Structure formats: C-alpha cells, structure tokens
Amino acid sequence: MDRHSAEPQVREIPSEKAKRWVEYHHQFSAPSTYVYEFVWDITDEAEGPFCTDVDGNVLMDFTSHVASAPLGYNNPKIVDKLREFDLVDPTKIAGQDFYTSGGWPPEDPEFPGPAQLMDRLTDVTSQYDMDTVFLSNSGAEAVENAIKICYQSGGHRAFTFDGAFHGRTLGALSLNRSKRAHRKGYPEIPGVVSVPYCSCDDVCECGWKTNGPGGNPIADKLDPEQGVIDPEEVAFLILESVQGEGGYRVPNEEFVRDLADIRERFDVNVVVDEIQAGMGRTGEMWGVDHLDLEPDVITSAKGLRVGATISRSDVFPEETGRLSSTWGAGDVVSSLQGALTLDAIEEHDLLGNAVERGRQARERIADADPANVVDVRGRGLLIALEFDTKERREAVVEAALKRGLLTLGCGYKTLRVLPPLDVTEREIDLGMDLLFDAIEDVA
Ligand SMILES: Cc1ncc(COP(=O)(O)O)c(C=O)c1O
Questions:
Q1: 3-class DSSP state for residue 140?
Q2: What are the sequence ranges of the domains in the chain?
Q3: Residue of 276, 288, 300 with the most ligand 1 atoms within 8 Å of its CB, for mutation
Q4: N or C: which end of the chain has fewer CB within 10 A?
Q5: What does the alpha-carbon distance between residue 62 and residue 283 come to, in Å, rounded to a whole number?
Q6: What value does the mean pLDDT take over residues 332-342?
Q7: Average confidence score pLDDT of the chain
Q8: DSSP-derived secondary structure letter, 195
Q9: CA gap 323, 142 in Å, rounded
Q10: In CATH, what is the architecture of 95-347?
Q11: Between these two residues, 182 and 37, which has the higher pLDDT value?
C-alpha cells in the first residue's frame, strides 16, 4: 500500500468474515463499548490513516483508535525502530520494582524506555514546572493516581464538570458526568460536586455565571462569608482541556479565567485531563497550552501508550509504596512507542500540521455547509460536527463507514473526526469528501 495514492475501497461492510469475527469475540467478551462492526486485519496492509479490514475493504481511519494511534498505522519512524529491536523476554518489566537500560548513556540510549519517556514528559510540561511522573497502564489509572496525590494536600472534596469523562475505575468514574451508564449504581468517592462546563459563545447560558457572592458556582461555594465549603476541604478540581465524551466542547475563555482565579484565591489543585485532547491533537502538546490556566497535575494516556500522572515533585507523596503499579510502564515496546511518538511530534512539527490540516478541514466544512449540521467545534485535529438529532449522527457514522471512512460519535448527537497527526492535505480532502457524501445521503 502506498499512502500517497491509497484510496478507500469498500465492497461490502460489514461483510461475512467481519461478522464471524464479531460473533466469535462476543462469545467470550463482557459487553463493552462497540461502535461498529469494523474488524481491522493486522496481517494486511495499512499505512497512515489507511487500513485493511478482514474482508479486504480498504478504509480510511479518521478515529485514530480514539486518539490512541496519533501517528496512524505503521508509521515508518516507529516501525523501523521496532524492527531494529530484537524483542526480548520478559517483554514486561515489573514496573516500579526494576530498572532497565536500552543502551548507553541513560539520557540518550538507542532504545528509549520508561525513564526516557518520563524525561521527555517533564520536558513537555516544564512550562508548568512539572518535574515528576508516575507511569500506569491506562487513562483511568492516570486519573486515579491524580486523585490520590491531590488528596495528599489534605482535602477530601473535589469539583468536576457537567459532561466530564475521566475513566471507568471507581475513583475516576465518580468524576464522570457524561453518560448515565458510567456511574449508575456504582459506589463513588464522596464529596464530588459537579458544576457547569462553560462552553457558551458569548452570553453564558449554562449556569456557570451566577449572581452569587463569587459569581460562579465554585467561588460561591467557597466564599469565605456565604459559602458552604471550606476551601481547605477541597483537594482538586478536574477538567478536560476540551471535553471528549461530553461532545468535544471547547471551554469559554472567561470560564477558564474564573478557574485560574479559583486556583489562585483558594489554593485548589487543578488537574487537567489530557488523555484525549493531549499529545499534540489540538495543535499544542496539551490542550491546556491554549488556555490561560496553570495546571498542577496533567493526566495523559491513549497516544502515549501508557498512563501518566505528571506533576511537581512537591505534589507527589515522598513515602515509597504509596504509588506503584507492576506493569505501570507497559511493556518494553509501549514506553518506546510513547517516547518515539513525542519525538516524532517535535521532529516533524506535527503540532504545526495539526493546526494547518485542522484549519483545512474546518474550511472544507464551512464551504460545504453540510445539511443538518448545527455546530462545528474543536481545535486542531480534534474536530466535531454536531447534528440536529442523535439518529442523524448515527446514520452519518454508518453511511461514512459504508463509503470507507471511520468516524465516531460523542456527546449526544455529535460526530468526531480524529485524523492522525501527520495527515496530509490530500487525505483531509479525501476524508471530507466521503463525509459530505455520507451527510448528503442521509439528508
Ligand atoms: C478524557 C478521558 N479521560 C480518561 C479516559 C480513560 O482512559 P482509559 O480508557 O485509558 O482508561 C478517557 C478515555 O476515553 C478519556 O477520553
């Protein structure tokens, strides 16, 4: 397959083999989130956004595995390095208990591992004075550990935002406010208060702005005279720099300024969840880099291939044994991939590419003015089209798939588009043509 000339080619989807795979999978699998019957064939050709499914259909993947494959399929920088690397056994190093070397010297070995990944992560968070990382296995664990380290500051309460998604472990799910299924009936950590996530255009209509003593629900609650929560009791507030599951909502600037003010006045730790919006997706390394807000903790995962809780050393516990995870740094390949992905972002100016190609996609959408799209949101290559109804969104996702374009739903009636960070001009045009065709067909 040559990425420069590849085009989606679909005979029938889902086809016979895909159906068999899906049926087989579900004989053993607990119900989870399955979006559609697309079965990627890892033994067949794939490059950049193009991949081949089990029935030989060539598809264009504009989901990047929900931002978990930021460089798309078979990126040569990653694959060539992996080819050089004779896999060893054990491939997993019992994380925090053992050290490994991938060559010499530690600062620049031939094969970067967990230590080099942490080194790079502190480089890309140094603007926030972050110097310490805890690696884990997933986004939920990165959040779980953010919760734990913030509890160290003494408080036991937290603020989260309407529409939030932070993962499915018990601590993380207590902070979710997007879909009912995430929390319904499960025990939750106590003391979590939810408030609106303001993404209003001009006039605030979401309830963030209040006539109370603080002018917003958090400051009202923490107000020294009239508030009901002692700021000392608050361990953290947590927000996504752009809401993911909640519908790709970009925060309003004034709302962000209010949060910065709350951090300053009440000394509340700000945790920014970058699990979906980070790793260059928005055109900055972290979504929070667009905002006038200083995070105390950043959580990352997905495209990083492992979970990471990043902060200043004074926020982390000093005592050993408080944080640990056997497979925390993933296998030897995971940390290597995370580190190489960060390198590729820098080396190939993929932040600049995310800005440029994101602009191109938005311009195409504005020019096409597709039917029944009521809003277009996002930043960089994190793009969302909101439809008039949920049914319409679902029909468009399906119609796009039939044409060979993979997209995803989010929020209630929003469709998200997440091309790889190195997507080309031709590929954006191809993908947008397929999307508009699908929208027209559904209309
Ligand atoms: C913003 C955000 N936080 C946390 C998570 C949880 O990550 P994981 O599924 O790796 O546990 C996700 C996953 O979609 C996410 O989008």
A1: helix
A2: 16-61+349-442, 95-347
A3: 276
A4: C
A5: 16
A6: 94
A7: 95
A8: E
A9: 11
A10: 3-Layer(aba) Sandwich (3.40)
A11: 182
- Does the structure show a pLDDT above 90 at 87? no
Q: Which ligand 1 atom minimizes the distance to the CA of 274?
A: 1
Sign of the C-alpha dihedral computed for residues 205, 207, 212 and 215 taken in this order: negative
Give long-range contacts, CB 8 A cutoff, 24+ apart: 67-70: 67/276, 67/277, 67/279, 67/281, 67/302, 67/303, 67/382, 67/418, 68/302, 68/303, 68/305, 69/303, 69/420, 70/279, 70/280, 70/281, 70/303, 70/341, 70/345, 70/350, 70/420, 70/421
Q: How confident is the model at residue 225 (pLDDT cuts 50, 70, 90)?
A: very high
Q: What is the pLDDT of residues 193-217, one digit of tens each?
A: 999 999 999 899 999 999 999 999 9
* Cβ of residue 138 lying under 6 Å from some atom of ligand 1: yes
Cβ–Cβ < 8 Å for 418, 380:
no
H and E: helices and strands count for the chain: 12, 15
419 lines ligand 1 (CB under 6 A): no
**56 torsion bin: left (phi>0), alpha (psi -120 to 50), beta (else):** left
**pLDDT band per the 50, 70, 90 thresholds, residue 153:** confident
Average pLDDT over residues 297-316: 97
Instruction: Calculate how far, in angstroms, residue 426's C-alpha sits from the geometric centre of ligand 1.
Output: 30
Strands 408-410 and 297-300: unpaired
- What does R_g of the chain's alpha carbons equal in angstroms? 22
| Residue 96 confidence (pLDDT) above 80 | no
Within 5-153, strands assigned E span 46-47, 50-52, 58-61, 132-136
pLDDT over 90 at 274, yes or no:
yes
301 lines ligand 1 (CB under 6 A): yes
Q: What is the pLDDT of residue 34?
A: 76
Distance 275 CA to ligand 1 centre (A): 6
> How far apart are the CA of 353 and the centre of ligand 1, in A?
24
Report the nearest-CA residue for atom 13 of ligand 1: 167
Euclidean distance between the first and final Cα of the chain, in Å? 34
Q: Is 211 exposed, middle or buried (0-12, 13-18, 19+ CB in 10 A)?
A: exposed
CA distance 230 to 237: 14
417 beta partners: 383
Whether 139 lines ligand 1, by a CB cut-off of 6 Å, is yes
| CB-based contact 38:90 (threshold 8 Å) | no
Helix (H, G, I), strand (E, B) or coil at 173: helix
